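Sequence in, structure out.
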Amino acid sequence: MTNILDNIARQFLCLLSFCFPNNIKPYLRKEKKYKQILEKIIQESNIAKSNLTRTHIQFNQKIRNILLEKKLYNFLRIGFIQKMFFVHNRLFIYYELKELKKNLSFWNKYKKLLSECSFGNPIRYFLYPSSSGNVINHVYHLSLLYRYFDIPLKKIDFVFEFGGGYGCNANIFYKLNKKVKYIIYDTFLVSLLQFYYLNTINVKTLFNNINTPKKISLISEFAFLKKINFTKYKQKLFVANWSLSETPLLFRINFYKIIYNADYVLISFQEKFENINNLKYFNILKKELSYKFDVKIILNKHYKGNFFSRQNHYYFICKKQKINRQII
């Protein structure tokens, strides 16, 4: 019943943007090319199910079915994609946008990041139609790094994102710095969606090109994590928006090395996920990292979940401390 009401509410909110259409025609030729590549990869792939839970198997099946849709170029209108990856006409987005505009220093430098791409047929934010709720939401997350730590976002030359959705955040960073090395770790099928979306909008994306500059790399296997050469980059960011916090505790350990090697960390999380107390977990992680990072856990004052599942959400943000070496 909750899912039905949730879908009805989502469809109603979409109607608020009916007078802000997208022009996806310029993308259709490239879309056709990458759709064919996508279908070939899926047909040739054997996705193992032995280590997956029933929930993950069902999730993978839904994503696979979506990837094989005839009109995939409208994928941001699909209810399941919106539920998992795309925030649109929610009231809390208005308050995030209002806060962005108040921060004049950030707004003047980075407001161009809010521009939404038409491909995928995204729902334009009805109170700011040049963007979408999802893009505003991602830019707002980044603004916290700027506000609390004065981090120069344009100088970040390496980003590791755990759980990249359909590639929205990667596209934002590509606008900031086309030379950025961006790695997304995700499930194989979601990586295919990222490959399809980013390449169609001219953001060059490949699989597993870990240390090749100027390209976005998509990985879904732990083996590639060990091959990352952190010394090549000066300003490194680890990002995980409602992704790391939705995995088992033991699984998270696989990404500690990347967090420790980062200069900045941005993690969004809900207070509780299934039987895991995330707030307790991230307070423990804060203590473990405090010798090396300035760490803040900030209550998300605008977002409390959806209409049918209310709880507190937080940001876990870090900046590596400058070590003063005494010459003897």
